[in-house]
Amino acid sequence: MKPALNVMPDAFNSQYFDLDDAGDVQEFYHSRGWTDGFPIVPPTPEAVQACLDWVLMPANEIIGIEPVRERAITAEKLAINAVMAGCLPAHFPVVVSAWMAMLKEEFLLHGTTASTGGCAILVILNGSIRREIGARSDFNVLGSSDRATSVIGRTIRLALINILQVSPGAIDRSTLGHPGKISYCIAEDEEGSDWLSLAESRDIPKDASAVTVLAACAPRQIMNEWTSKPEEILDTYAAEMRANMRNYSIWSGNYVVIMAPQHREHMRAAGWGRKEIANYLFEKARIRRSEWSTVGKGSVIRDKGDTEYCALPSPDHLLLVAAGGPAGGFGAIIPPWLGAKSQAVTAAIGVCIDCEPPSQAK
Amino acid sequence: MTIRVLNPTSEAVVEIMQPAPRLTSLAGKTVGLISNGKEGTAGFFAHVDRLLREHYQVAQVVLRTKSNYSAPAEDEIIDEARNWDLAITGLGD
Predict the structure, then answer these.
(1) Confidence of residue A350 (pLDDT cuts 50, 70, 90)
(2) Do the beta carbons of residue B28 and residue B59 sit within 8 Å?
(3) pTM higher than the cut 0.90
(4) Which helix (H) or strand (E) holds A25?
(5) Cβ of B6 under 8 Å from any chain A Cβ?
(6) Does A162 sit within 8 Å of B6, measured CB to CB?
(7) Rounded to whole angstroms, what are the CA distances from A67 to A63, A64, A342, B11, B53?
(8) Of A227, A232, A312, B44, which cross-links B92 as Cys (Cβ 3.0–4.6 Å)?
C-alpha cells in the first residue's frame, strides 16, 4: 500500500525524536526553549514534506544566508518551524518569500533582531495569495484577524528563535520588545481601495503576490472622526509621527501608515491618492531638534537646535497600507525600528508553472 | 504508537576559534578601541584611553568608530586591527 506521502525520515537532515504522544511533544519542545510559550503543532516529517512540496523545494534548498553570522537558512528548517507555528502548506510560500526579503543585506536582520530597541518584523501581504489563504484586512487587522496572518507572523518569530538563536537574553537583547514579536502580519485591503497596492507602488507587477517586511515598532493608533478634510485627517497622523520622533527616534526611515476605510473614503472623495498623502506627510512630519527640550531630552540638543528632521527620507519611503474595519475614524502609524538603518524590503512570491514537487519527481 | 518529530534548530556546528595569544603586559603596546559611536561612547572610551596610558603604560591608543552601530565593523577597521597588539570593543550605550 502506498504511504500517504512519499516521505522517508532520511529525506531530512534534521535530527528526529520518537515521542509518546502530542502532549509529550509540547513538553519536549517547551523544555528545550524551542517555542514562544504557546503550544505548537508537532513537526512530523509528513507535515514538513507537505510544506516543501507546496513550494517545490528540496529540503536542503538554501533560502538565504544571514550575512553577519553567516548562518544558512534551509527550506527544511523553515518548514519545520512553519508547521510548529500552525502553517498549512499554502501559507509556506509567504514564509519563504518573507525570509528571502529579511535576508537581504539592507534589512540588517542581525541588528534588528539583536537590538535593545525591541522591534518586531512586520510582514505585509499583497496580491491574490491573500484571498487564497484567507488573510483578512478588515476587523481587528492589527490583532488576531485570521488564521493565515497569525500563523505566518508566528513562523517568523519561531524560526528566528530556533534557527538563529534569537531567544530573549541570547541574541535577542530587547529591553522591552512588543506584542508584535509574537506575530506581526497583515494583508492590505486591495479590494476596498482604489489606490495602487503597496507592492505595486514598490515596483511589483500587478498580477504578482508579494510580501513587504519591515523592522517595526509597535503600532500607535490615532483617531479623528471630526473632519472630512484630507489635510486635517493627515495632520493627526503627522502629529503621531512627530511624537514618535520626539519620544523614541528622530531618524528618518520607512514609516507605515495604516488607514481604515472611513479615512480612505474622505481621501477618495477629495481625490487624494497614495502620492498626495505621501507628499503631505513628507512635508508635515518634521521636527526641530530643539523640540527634544519638551520631552526631557534637552541635554543632547547641543548646538543643533535649529536642525530640522523629517520622518521620511522621501515621500516614497512611506508605506501606506489600506486596512481596517469598516467603521471608525481610526488609523495607525507603525514607526521603523531605527531610522534607515534597516530598510523595508518587498519581494514577489515565486511561481512555477508545470513543476513537480521534488519528492515526486521521477 | 509514537509520534516522530523533527528538530527545529539550526543544529549548526560552529567552528571553534582559537583566541589570540594573551599579552603578559600592556607596556609599550598599541591598543585599538572600536566604538559603536553611540551617545555614551565618547566619555566611556576617553576614560578607557586614560586608564590604558596612565595605569598600564600603553604606548599608543587608536580609536576607530563604526559608521552603523548595529552592524559589524567595516573591513577597513578589521584590516587595521591586524596592526594592533590588542583590540577592545564595547557598547558605551
Answers:
(1) confident
(2) yes
(3) yes
(4) helix A22-31
(5) yes
(6) no
(7) 13, 9, 14, 18, 37
(8) B44
Taking a C-beta distance cutoff of 8 angstroms, is the pair A116, A175 a contact? yes
Q: Which of A13, A48, A42 is nearest to A30 (CA)?
A: A42
Which residues are CB-contacts of A246 (< 8 A; sequence separation ≥ 6)? A287, A291, A292, A294, A295, A297
Residue A47, H or E segment: helix A45-55
Report the distance separating Cα A134 and Cα B63, nearest Å.
55
Could you give the CA distance from residue A123 to residue A37 in angstroms, rounded to a whole number?
Answer: 21
What's the length of chain B?
Answer: 93
Q: Report chain B residues whose CB lies below 8 A from the CB of A112.
A: 70
Q: A313: which 3 cell numbers?
A: 527620507
Beta strands A345-348; A62-66: pairing state: unpaired
B8 vs A43, A111, A338: nearest CB? A43
Residues in chain A: 362
**Distance (Å, whole) CA A105 – CA A68:** 9
A75, A39 Cβ separation under 8 angstroms:
no
DSSP annotation string for A140-157:
TTTSS--HHHHHHHHHHH
Report CB contact under 8 Å: B4, A9.
yes
ipTM for this prediction: 0.91
Alpha helices in A289-331 (DSSP H): none
Domains of chain A: 21-217+337-362 (no CATH), 218-335 (3.30.2320)
Q: Which three cell numbers stand for residue A334?
A: 507603525
Taking alpha carbons only, the member of A293, A295, A230 closest to residue A263 is A230
- Amino acid identity of residue A232, one-letter, is E
Window B:70-89, CB contacts with A under 8 Å: 70-72
Cβ–Cβ < 8 Å for A333, A256: yes
Cβ atoms of residues A108 and B70 within 8 Å: yes
- Across A75-79, B5-9, B72-76, least confident range: B72-76
